[in-house]
Amino acid sequence: MKKSQKHIVIIEDDPVLRQLTEMAFSLEGYKVDLFENGKQGVAYLEQNLQTVDLILLDLFMPVLDGAHVLNWLRKTQQSCIYVVVMTAMTDIQTEQNILSAGANKVIKKPLDMKTLLSAVKEFINN
């Protein structure tokens, strides 16, 4: 990884969405690591958290969901890493709960890649 290259971890159970987001961010020059559930993501982050600039996190996944991953990051690891949560849940209460739990931003599915890229750049390219 180039010293200036930003590192994004994508934790998303939908294989198509996972590949599309990887392609979009790789084309923008980011280093990307992919995981299909929170358990895999946490296992990777336990060893590599200090190298990661931002996490794209699906909220609802099998094995370990995004809420548990976010809780682990904020409470157990006391990490301030940027987290953008991606979810199809669109009600205000869910969004407020996610932000209160420590997410930096909530992006609603279906994803608009321009919006997602813009949100990520807002956090990690400053």
- In the sheet with the most strands, the strands line up as 2-1-3-4-5
Got a strand count? Answer: 5
Let me know the largest β-sheet: 5 strands, parallel
The stretches of 5 or more residues where confidence is low (pLDDT under 50) are: none
Number of helices: 5
Shape: globular
Structural features, described:
The mean pLDDT is 93. This protein has helices spanning 15-27, 38-48, 66-76, 92-100, 113-124; strands spanning 7-11, 31-35, 54-58, 82-87, 105-108. The protein has a 5-stranded parallel sheet with strand order 2-1-3-4-5, sandwiched between helices. It has one domain (7-124): 3-Layer(aba) Sandwich (Rossmann fold), CATH 3.40.50. It has 5 helices and 5 strands. The chain has 126 residues and is an alpha/beta fold.
Topology:
Layout: E1 7-11, H1 15-27, E2 31-35, H2 38-48, E3 54-58, H3 66-76, E4 82-87, H4 92-100, E5 105-108, H5 113-124
Parallel strand pairs: 1-2, 1-3, 3-4, 4-5
Helix pairs in contact: 2-3
List keywords for this structure.
single chain, 126 residues, alpha/beta, Rossmann fold, 5-stranded parallel sheet, 5 helices, 5 strands
Give a short summary of the structure:
Helices cover 44% and strands 20% of the residues.
